[in-house]
Design brief:
The complex is a heterodimer of chains A (about 40) and B (about 450). Chain A is mainly α and about 40 residues long. Chain A has helices spanning about 15-25, 30-40; one strand spanning about 1-5. The interface between A and B is large, with 33 and 63 residues.
Amino acid sequence: MKSINRTKNLWNNDLTLKGLKDNVGPMCCWYWCLWYLSRK
Amino acid sequence: MKLFSSKYNYSKRINSRYTLINNTLTGALDIIENDIRDLIAAKKFNSIRPNILLRLRNRGYFYSNAEKEDKILLELYNNYVKKAAGRPLRFVFCPSYQCNLRCTYCFETDLPSNPNKYMTGKILDDSIDAAEEIIKEKSGKMDSVELFGGEPLLLKNKPFVEKILEFAGKKDAPITIITNGVSAKEFIEVLLPVKNRIEMLQITIDGPREIHDKRRKYASGKGSFDQISKNIDLLLENNIRTNVRINIDNTNIEFIPDLYEYICQKNWIQYPDFSIRLAPVTDHTTLDYDNIIIPEEKLLERLIRLYDEYPVLEEIFGFYLFKPLRHILDIFNGAPNVSPRFFNCESNLLELNVFCPDGYIYACGESIGKPHLAIGRFSPKLEFYPDKKTLWTERTILNIKKCRTCRFAPICGGGCAFSSLLIYKDNSRPICERYQEVLDTFLELRGEKLFEKYMNKL
């Protein structure tokens, strides 16, 4: 068995705001694009 | 010991030896041997080697107590809600409901007939005052100013656009502009003073000239390609961050290579301020498919066939346009984890304040011009409608019955609230996207490649 993400922080209960933004923001329309551009 | 499988396990065989497994709640993504997968499927947990079983439990694939997972879901949700209170504040200004194009797949076809065609001076002033008031009541910070419509860059809107951009400058806010680009030339002088704060000016091109012009045309039927192309030249020469969006569906996907060739000839790709991406055409008013909008996995399959023929396109565009793949791609690309998604999008968190010519505030850019979906109004005075706000905020994967048993709920968020309201006149219906089908197709066609790339990195 090989774990691709090796974080011990599964059941991630300590999200940073950035993490939250990354996760919520990109679903719709142009936000996804902004989010995508910011990660390039 | 009796073990219970998580509700949120997804697995797909990658090749004759390995299977990829993912828990959409914990975000765990692992590769296991197929014999282990077979034992799991047969619920023969005691036959799995103890060290492997322990790891599988530690990563959330199994529990010793059936209620534990529900409890964790609730704890995570409560934490998420607390953090959501600190979300950014975004202000979207729609200076008009009018547009100078009549695109074939437009989702705003009812807007041009809205009696409030343009913002008046009073409406604009009220919108800026309302934004000030909202900022003051909340974080004190304006996180972004966005121009949307209709088409925001219409000549008639120019003094209004200038005023909105000045306001963004005063508030030190980043700017996003969603435009069809046909009148961008006339706006260069108002964009230049704020160009450093423009995060993105988005213009859509749907293919080479003959394809684009059939889709994105003026009311007269004339195509917009040449005008847009000239304006992109001009924007890039003026160092304005320009993003080309290519809306793809079943009828234009095969022309991506031709458009890409044009873009290379134009040398746009060499500009640091240029970016490009694909986006699937969507229609949130229906769940049906037709010859234009096809099931997402079919579109993915066609795209992969195209990528096989033109590998450079895969490097440029990738697969992020498919929502069901983002969590897996993120983790393969090195993200330590992805957090569960309890809502569909930022509209559920009322992150957006969309100010429109009718004086209403909307939570979602697609719902504009439909006052029964407005969350408040900003003119003549600022007021919010608490019952309308809850239409968006109470829509979570905990409140949508079907989501409580869906393995993809923590990566999907329940689907589009606007669709649910429009199609069912009810905010609590699931709008199911094709997570299973898209993931299966992707891993069927690209799983091994992804896996090899990962193994080579080890």
